[in-house]
Amino acid sequence: MSASTGLGDPPASLLGFPEAAPVAELHRLSEFPGSWWFASTEVDDHGGGRFDLPPPQGTCYLADSLTGAIVEKLLRTPVKVVVAERLDELFHTVVTVRRTPTVADLTSRRATGFGLNAEIHSTLEYGRTRRWAAAFHRNGFRGLRHRLRGDVSQRLAGWALFGTAGLRRRAPNGMATAVRPLDRLEVVRVLDRLGVELRPIPAVVPIASPSTPRR
Asked: pLDDT (tens digit, 9 = 90+) per residue, 39-76?
């Protein structure tokens, strides 16, 4: 059963759609050191990502800050506690952007005039959002700037970049990739600002003695 949405279908032409401003860095947290994974899903298939393109194209999801990457990776569903050991599984990729590609800015107020509303960032009806992604790709855009569903302030931005589906060994033209150790202290600071705790898996679990039944 699909979730209901007030988001309409994309128009045939997206000529004049606002473009994202240049960005200096992008960030991604991943379980794998290979940073450039372009996920591909058929438009109406279950599973997959919000802006996945159908094969043979795909979409790689990043954020324009480490905070955004943390929210995107760890807080996509509501949580109060993040398991500390989870951080040991993640690689932090920093992408230096020397030349910003042509990316549609879904956060621009002018996007309203093309039939968009804020559900593009939050609806669970991914078939609809993927139709928008495919339409932007057909109209020559190389990606989308969007809000992160896990960010209740709706200030953080994600970047969904288009490319050939699958794992790519090299960064797109105009970008350079560096994989760094994840700064655990910064993650703790980010989670603390968001009211989320970081806790280790307990090594010892106390076992309470059974209470004496009343007669």
From this structure: 999 999 999 999 999 999 999 999 999 999 999 999 98
Which domain covers residue 40, as residue numbers? 25-197
Q: How far apart are CA 76 and CA 179, in angstroms?
A: 23
Query: How many CA atoms, within 13 angstroms, populate the side-chain half-sphere of residue 144?
Result: 29
107-116, 143-152, 205-214, range with the lowest pLDDT: 205-214
- Block residue for tokens 């509303």: 117
Q: How many Cβ atoms sit within 10 Å of the Cβ of residue 62?
A: 24
The predicted model gives 116-142 an average pLDDT of 96
Task: Choose among 29, 101, 97: nearest CA to 63.
Answer: 29
Number of structural domains the chain divides into:
1
What is the C-alpha separation between 84 and 89, in angstroms, rounded? 10
**Residue 165 predicted with pLDDT over 80:** yes
CA atoms within 13 A on the CB side of 26: 28
Residue 34 is classified by DSSP as -
The encoded tokens of residue 37 equal 């994974």
Q: Which of 59, 28, 26, 53 is nearest to 41 (CA)?
A: 53
Please tell me whether the overall predicted TM-score, pTM, comes out greater than 0.85 for this model. Answer: yes
